[in-house]
Every structure is written in structure tokens, then in C-alpha cells.
Design brief:
The longest helix is centred in the first third of the chain and has 25 residues, at 37-61. The chain has one domain. It is built from 17 helices and 2 strands. Strands 1-2 form a two-stranded parallel ribbon. It is an all-alpha fold and 358 residues long.
């Protein structure tokens, strides 16, 4: 499915009944909105033991290039901790909001090494206005362009990149891990108001200075440097490959167009098929439609809710999108390449260039 811009108002909710209220009632009747504390505590314990096992392996490997084999494991563990952070931030773990916030803040800052406050501010705006031009920070054009008009305005190196941005998307994700850490420090040291600034700065510094020190204690500096590069690159790719399929290439809502909550969340989101494996691989993000409709719904309940939501959308004739993982990647690449066409010279003759006659 290629990206499109909705150009007409959608039906308004019935004046006396809300379609979303009807859907919510069905979901509640199945008991799908309860927290899953045991599930998440078990998951955190498993991830913590995995982290400890990886560090133990690094200790016994010593001064050898075989250490690099553990860098991908570290990237996977950190990404999995990021998923749990995301879920705690959405109040999926504990009944207490404070307990969820504290858990998410510790995991984000002290374990993963990114700012919880920065991420929450960005993510909250995304959930309120997914794929809404001018409101969703996830489709704001900076280096990668998500709208034709923005792509057409690019110049120089950016223009050359945007022309090929679809094909370059996954390679550029190798820098996303570094970007997340840079954004973390920019936020906590900014002049903007920030709750728990002292706590976040302390945890971020401890984690992001302590981790390299641990690596240097376990291996020579040159192996540690390569280890860190591999870890950060794969962390960025895994994070991007998990979040990108959710909305990229789905319809974008023009600024000012009023769309009811149900359709705004469903029509801009894409689910990924794959069963239990995909639930763990993507940290529940594979049920993006249900996650946007019920942000506090715990991961183990999402597949049950998907059946209800899918049937409900069919009844109401609301487009419900679900694809395979690699199909979604193809859609994202094609969409970004299509946007990139706006950056090309309108007088270029692609066939002639291919034939070497331009």
C-alpha cells in the first residue's frame, strides 16, 4: 500500500453513540485491559540474566576478537529493554502510574542510555496525532523527507540523498542508535523545563560513561571501540526496523483535517503478521492498530484484541491494514523512494540516463 494524503473529511461519529465506545465495550467485556505485571517482571528478569550472561561471556573471552560475536547480542538485549521501557511508559506493567514511570525512567536512562523525558514528549505527540502533517514528530522532515513538497525544497547533499532515500533508509539506521543517545543529552542539558532533570542526567552519565569503561576493562581498547560501533549500529537498525513498519507509507492526515479518534488511529497504522515470534521480535509493536487504540493494553492481550478490532472495522467499513514484515519493509522503501522523486530534476530523463545517453 503506497502512502496517500486524505483529501476529504471523514464521516463524523453518530451524535448519540460513539463507534469507539462500542469497540471499547467489546474489548472490556473480554477483560483485555488488565495489567500484566507478572509477564513483564518475568521478561525483565530474563533480559537482566541475558545481560549478565553476555557480560560474563565477555569476561571469559578476554583479549580476543571473538568478543565481537557478543556485540549483536548486546544490541538485541538493549532493544528488548527499550520495548519494555515503551510498555511501562504506556502503563502496561503496574497499576500505579508512578511505578510505571519510575520503571521506564530507570530502564531508559540507566540501562538503554537514552532520555525517558525526551522520548515521552516525542512519543506522546505521535500518539495524539499519528501521521498528521505538522503535528506528528515522527513524520517531520529533517534528513529523511516524508512529504513531496519538503523533498522538492532540498538542495545539495540532502537533495542527492533524498533522491535515493528509500534504498538508503536501512543503511542510515546504523546511525540511529547514536542519534538517540545524542538527543538524550541535548534534551537533559537544554534550557527547556524538565522534570527529574537531575535524576536523568545522573543516570545517563553513569550509563553512557560506565559502559565504555566496562568494555575497556574486559578487552583491549581497539576491540572495545569496534564492539561499541557494532553494538550501536545494530541497535539503531533493530530499533528502526521495529518502529518504521508501523506508520511509514500509510495515509497522512493534512494539517487541519478533522478525523475522529477511531479512524485516525486505525487508518494511519499497519499491523505485522507473524504470531508469537513477531510479538517478541517487535515488542508488541506488530499490533500497532490495537496499541494506538488502547495504549495501556499489555502485550499478551494484543493478539486477542486484534481479532475484535479486525471484525469491528470490517463491520464499519474502516480500512484495517495488516502485512508481513518484509512486505512492510518493501512498502516503506517504495514510499520513501516515491517521495524522493520530488527531489529529482524534472528535466532529467531516467530512461536516457539508464541507457547512457543523457
Amino acid at each position: 500500500m503506497s502512502s496517500a494524503v486524505l483529501d476529504h473529511p471523514l464521516p463524523k461519529p453518530h451524535p448519540y453513540t460513539s463507534e469507539f465506545a462500542e469497540l471499547l465495550a467489546r474489548v472490556k467485556s473480554e477483560g483485555l485491559l488488565s495489567r500484566s505485571r507478572t509477564y513483564y517482571i518475568t521478561l525483565i528478569v530474563i533480559l537482566s540474566l541475558s545481560l549478565l550472561a553476555t557480560l560474563t561471556g565477555m569476561y571469559f573471552l578476554g583479549n580476543t576478537w571473538a568478543q565481537l560475536a557478543l556485540a549483536p547480542a548486546m544490541a538485541v538485549i538493549m532493544t528488548q529493554f527499550s520495548f519494555v521501557t515503551h510498555e511501562a511508559a504506556h502503563r502496561q506493567v503496574f497499576s500505579s502510574g508512578q511505578a510505571n514511570d519510575t520503571t521506564a525512567r530507570i530502564l531508559a536512562n540507566a540501562v538503554v542510555g537514552i532520555s525517558y523525558s525526551w522520548w515521552m514528549g516525542k512519543h506522546t505527540r505521535h500518539h495524539a496525532n499519528p501521521n498528521t502533517i505538522g503535528k506528528d514528530p515522527d513524520i517531520q522532515s529533517d534528513f529523511i523527507m516524508f512529504q513531496d513538497d519538503k523533498a522538492a525544497e532540498t538542495k545539495g547533499f540532502t537533495k542527492a540523498f533524498v533522491k535515493r532515500q528509500g534504498w538508503l533508509f536501512f543503511p542510515i539506521l546504523t546511525l540511529e542508535g547514536l542519534n538517540l543517545h545524542v538527543q538524550a543529552f541535548r534534551r537533559v542539558f537544554s534550557k527547556e523545563p524538565l522534570k527529574h532533570r537531575g535524576t536523568e542526567i545522573t543516570l545517563l552519565l553513569a550509563r553512557n560513561l560506565g559502559y565504555p569503561v566496562i568494555l575497556l576493562a574486559l578487552m583491549p581498547w581497539y576491540i572495545a571501540a569496534v564492539f561499541l560501533v557494532i553494538h550501536m549500529a545494530l541497535f539503531g537498525v533493530y530499533m528502526g526496523a521495529s518502529f518504521a513498519p508501523n506508520h511509514k507509507g500509510m495515509p497522512q492526515i493534512p494539517a487541519g483535517l478533522k478525523v475522529d479518534f477511531l479512524r485516525r488511529q486505525v487508518m494511519t497504522s499497519r499491523n505485522i503478521r507473524g504470531g508469537l515470534f513477531m510479538d517478541h521480535f517487535m515488542g508488541g509493536l506488530n499490533y500497532q492498530v490495537e496499541h494506538h487504540l488502547f495504549p495501556s493494553m499489555a502485550r499478551p492481550q494484543l493478539h486477542k484484541a486484534a481479532r475484535i478490532v479486525r471484525e469491528f472495522c470490517a463491520e464499519k467499513k474502516i480500512a484495517y491494514t495488516e502485512t508481513g514484515l518484509f512486505q512492510s519493509y518493501g512498502i516503506v522503501i517504495a514510499y520513501l523512494n516515491r517521495v524522493g522523486l520530488a527531489a529529482r530534476d524534472p528535466f532529467d530523463c531516467p530512461p536516457a540516463q539508464v541507457l547512457g545517453r543523457a
